[in-house]
Amino acid sequence: MKTTKQPRPFGIRDSIAYAAGDLGCNMSFALKGTMSIFWTQFMGLDLWYALLLIVVQVWDAINDPLIGSMIDADKHNYKRNKFLQYIWAGSIGLIVGGACCFLPFPNAPVWAKMIIFIAGYVVWDAFYTVANVPYGSLLSLISKEPADRASLSAWRSIGSIFGNMLPMVILPFIIYDSNNNLVGNRVFIAALVMGALGFICFQFMIKNTEIRVDTDVACNEDQPKFNVFKAFGNFIKNRPAVGATLAAMGMFIGMQGATSAVTVIFQSYFKNVQISGIVQLFAMIPIVVFTPLARKMVVKYGKKELATFGSICSVVAALGLFVVTPNNTQLDLVIYIGCQLIYSLGLGIYSTVSWAMMGDAIDYNEWKFGVREEGTVYSLHSFFRKLAQGLGPSLVLIIMVALGYVGANEGNQLWEVAVRMRYLVAATFLFSALLQFVGLGLIYNLDKKTMAKMNEELEARRIAE
After folding, report:
1. H-helix or E-strand spanning residue 109
2. How many domains in the chain?
3. Cα–Cα nearest to 44, from 180, 188, 181, 177
4. Is there a domain that residue 372 lies in?
């Protein structure tokens, strides 16, 4: 149902509200990086965990596109907006959803642990998708202006940063003991607390979000029914969506895939797991510095151009991570931190515009195929991101075991194993950066000039309608 009420002008309130949404998502999602250590070192599953993590991606394959297409096909008139309604429902489930992944029963039989993991993950993933898919789709509806979308994307990155800072910096001091070993009961309690905080963030976002882009579709008998297979075909032909998705997969393979190996590095190579969060927080400085500049930089250079430059920075930094000094001197830690800073700069440049690039990909879908399929486009993007988030850690963990990692050794891996983890992290980051470059530089085709043409033609169509 359309309304004659004029929306308020876009402003900082919109950006802060949208940032709060990603803060809420990350309150639930950020602990996923601890999952592999929890299930290998505390719960006692090594290769079993890697295999199970791949299995649950089958649920993702059904879950994300199904919910995305369901949202697109939903023509009910909600009081405010259907995306906000789904986010509200998902946020309630996430209060306990994250904690379901960390049920602490280390003495249970192996088969019971496997059931606990699969059941917990499925519950969490279902609620996370219900909240996250429509949240990502909202960006293209809050404003149609490129600068506004760049601002929303940048502020979403801020929400993500703060959502990661809490578990990254504070939790290592809480969930690890003095011997660098994980204490599982503490992780479960932390997940419950973070779920409650996430719910509060989502409610703030819902109450302060204004929808300005009218995408209402008149329902009549002549209107063709939604076809999920056709929508998937459109997605595959949507070069910006495919390029941005490949880049996001690369980003998450680096961020999530290397997490376990990074933890082992600080446990058994640098021998101080508590400082791992501080080091990673320090590496976020370039992201924080660049975020306020994102809006002006996008207007001047364009999103594709900026993101491609960022991927090149990440490639250079990943190559630098292969430089390892003998006997783990303090210089080695300095080199590691320095390369992380440069890698983070490249990642920060891309991440601050990544969501705006997906908003543009949704517009591209309308431009090329004549239909807006926010839920489907974003859910397929989300599915492949989740695939990277699941397959990345699984494959890296399999490689870790092959290189000598033993979960039962906890924070006391052999020195040779710790050194191998050092190189594995470098290799994972390099692979991640190269995928980002291919997706952004070679596939994504919405440069600044093409963006201007697309927006002009779409505006003309909407006026004509």
Report:
1. none
2. 1
3. 181
4. yes
For residues 132 and 60, what is the distance between their CA atoms, to the nearest angstrom?
13
**Rounded Cα–Cα distance for residues 464 and 141 (Å):** 20
Three-state secondary structure of 224-253: CCCCHHHHHHHHHHCHHHHHHHHHHHHHHH
CATH number at residue 349: 1.20.1250.20
Specify if 304 maps to a domain. yes
Minimal CA–CA distance to 267: which of 168, 181, 169? 181
CA 75 to chain centre: 28
Tell whether 441 is covered by a domain.
Answer: yes
**Is residue 216 situated within a structural domain?**
no
Three-state DSSP class for residue 182: strand
The number of residues in the chain equals 465
Helix (H, G, I), strand (E, B), or coil: what is residue 45?
coil
Nearest CA to 130 out of 78, 174, 172, 87 is that of 87
Contact, 440 vs 247, CB < 8 A? yes
pLDDT confidence of residue 227: 56
Segments forming the whole domain that contains residue 42: 12-211+223-464
Q: How far apart are CA 386 and CA 4, in angstroms?
A: 39
Residue 82 · residue 151 · CB < 8 Å: no
Q: Please give the Cα distance from 437 to 440 (Å, whole number).
A: 5
Q: How far is CA 47 from CA 44, 265, 396, 411, in A?
A: 10, 19, 11, 18
The pLDDT tens digits for 145-162 are 777 877 887 788 778 777
pLDDT tens-digit series, residues 328-375: 677 888 888 888 888 888 887 887 788 778 878 888 888 887 777 666
pLDDT tens digit string along 214-232?
654 333 334 445 455 666 7
